[in-house]
């Protein structure tokens, strides 16, 4: 409920609490002012007795209403009794003075709160009888014309009150439906938040298993091959009597050993995104691209578009992993002279997206002809695609032999949980 709704409710509450006092006061002032000079003492005594009874009734209902949890907003036996007695007093006062119909009109504004649904229209009709009698000129009627005028005014007043009551009931029904809809939406949001947290946990667990597979593939593709190459070089050394040839192969073995050590360190380093410990994703990507370019002597550029936001750690880690693997593939297979990495934040539409684009001018390949990933194969396109899909993203690859490769990963823009 908005602040405006609360303010309106307070105004209605004040009107229902103090309105009857105000209308009773107006009726007394106008009744006394319009009283005929020759009004009998008995009439005055009766009128003031009725006024006193009405005031006592209002004070009783005020105390009773304030003690109820709902402040008298729902029909009850006490509320119905109060409505009937108040109507009787207002009718009697209006019989003595037509101006007392102001007090009778209070029944129009609280019949829906005091009377059960099946008696509500009868209560409004009773109030319309009193008001129509006052509008006719006062009771009792002394001519047929007054009776005819009373009948017409009674129909008009009843129709107006029934129509207003019907519209009011429809508005309350719409308000109840809006309240129920808001409650359902809040429940759905809570359920979505819980589901989102569960999905992140599952993604994290799946990421751990995937890292294990990736590390095994890294060892097989790089370290194991490097060790095999070292063994081959050392075997040549042990089988050759020429010092110059042996020295050359020892140098090659040392180079392979250094390379394999670097690969081992890289594999262990990539097991967890250390680059994201102190930097956001844009800065981590910028450093990764720069270091990769220095290591491979390939021209590499990083570009950021859109307004950078602090992403959820799972989203940032996924995009960093994809970038590292794509750059590794470009170094191994593409034989490119230039690589461009672009990170784009698209948060201007519902949900938002983060897009990572990696392009190279290398040899390219036919995406449809890429062999299926083997049990001990490298991370590859399938692994990068699986990473993106685990966080409800997608990966697309465009490439042709001789025309380079363009890779694009699109993931939801999920902000960091503060």
Q: How would you characterize the overall build of this protein?
A:
The chain contains 11 helices and 5 strands; from the N terminus they run αααααααααβαββαββ. The protein starts with a helix and ends in a 6-residue tail after the last strand. Helix 10 links the parallel strand 1 and strand 2. By secondary structure, the chain is an alpha+beta fold. Helix 2 runs antiparallel to helix 3, helix 3 packs antiparallel against helix 5 and helix 7 runs antiparallel to helix 8. It has a 5-stranded mixed β-sheet, covered by helices on one side. The chain is 68% helix and 9% strand.
Keywords:
5 strands; 9% strand; 418 residues; alpha+beta; rod-shaped
What is this entry, summarized?
The protein is α+β, with helices and mostly antiparallel strands. 68% of the residues lie in helices and 9% in strands.
Could you outline the blueprint of secondary structure elements for this entry?
Blueprint: H1 3-33, H2 41-67, H3 77-96, H4 101-104, H5 106-114, H6 117-136, H7 144-239, H8 243-269, H9 281-296, E1 299-305, H10 313-334, E2 338-346, E3 353-360, H11 380-390, E4 394-399, E5 405-412
Parallel strand pairs: 1-2
Antiparallel strand pairs: 2-3, 3-5, 4-5
Helix pairs in contact: 1-2, 2-3, 3-5, 3-6, 5-6, 6-7, 7-8, 9-10, 10-11
């Amino acid at each position: 409920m908005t602040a405006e709704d609360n303010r309106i409710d307070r105004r209605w509450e004040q009107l229902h609490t103090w309105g009857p006092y105000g209308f009773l006061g107006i009726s007394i002032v106008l009744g006394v002012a319009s009283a005929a000079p020759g009004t009998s003492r008995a009439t005055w005594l009766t009128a003031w007795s009725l006024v006193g009874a009405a005031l006592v009734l209002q004070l009783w209902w005020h105390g009773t209403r304030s003690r109820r949890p709902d402040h008298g907003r729902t029909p009850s036996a006490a509320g119905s009794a109060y409505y009937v007695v108040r109507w009787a007093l207002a009718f009697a006062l209006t019989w003595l003075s037509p101006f007392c119909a102001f007090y009778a009109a209070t029944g129009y504004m609280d019949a829906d709160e005091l009377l059960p649904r099946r008696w509500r229209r009868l209560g409004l009709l009773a109030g319309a009888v009193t008001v129509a009698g006052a509008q006719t000129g006062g009771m009792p009627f002394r001519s047929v014309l007054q009776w005819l005028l009373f009948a017409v005014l009674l129909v008009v007043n009843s129709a107006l009150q029934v129509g207003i009551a019907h519209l009011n009931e429809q508005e309350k029904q719409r308000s109840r439906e809006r309240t129920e809809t808001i409650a359902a939406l809040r429940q759905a949001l809570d359920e979505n938040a819980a589901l989102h947290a569960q999905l992140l946990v599952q993604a994290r667990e799946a990421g751990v298993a995937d890292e294990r597979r990736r590390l095994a593939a890294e060892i097989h593709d790089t370290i194991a091959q490097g060790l095999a190459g070292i063994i081959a070089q050392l075997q040549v050394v042990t089988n050759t009597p020429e010092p110059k040839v042996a020295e050359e192969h020892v140098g090659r073995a040392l180079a392979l050993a250094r390379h394999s050590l670097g690969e081992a360190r890289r594999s262990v380093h990539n097991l967890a995104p250390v680059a994201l410990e102190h930097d956001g994703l844009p800065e981590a990507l910028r450093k990764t691209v720069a270091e990769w370019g220095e290591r491979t002597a390939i021209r590499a550029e990083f570009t950021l578009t859109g307004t950078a936001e602090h992403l959820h750690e799972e989203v940032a880690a996924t995009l960093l992993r994809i970038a590292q693997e794509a750059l590794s593939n470009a170094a191994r297979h593409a034989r490119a002279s230039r690589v461009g990495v672009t990170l784009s934040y698209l948060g201007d539409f519902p949900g938002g997206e983060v897009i990572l684009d990696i392009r190279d001018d290398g040899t390219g390949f036919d995406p449809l002809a890429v062999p299926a990933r083997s049990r001990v194969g490298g991370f590859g396109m399938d692994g990068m695609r699986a990473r993106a899909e685990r966080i409800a993203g997608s990966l697309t690859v465009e490439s042709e032999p001789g025309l380079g490769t363009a890779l694009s990963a699109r993931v939801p823009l999920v902000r960091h949980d503060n």
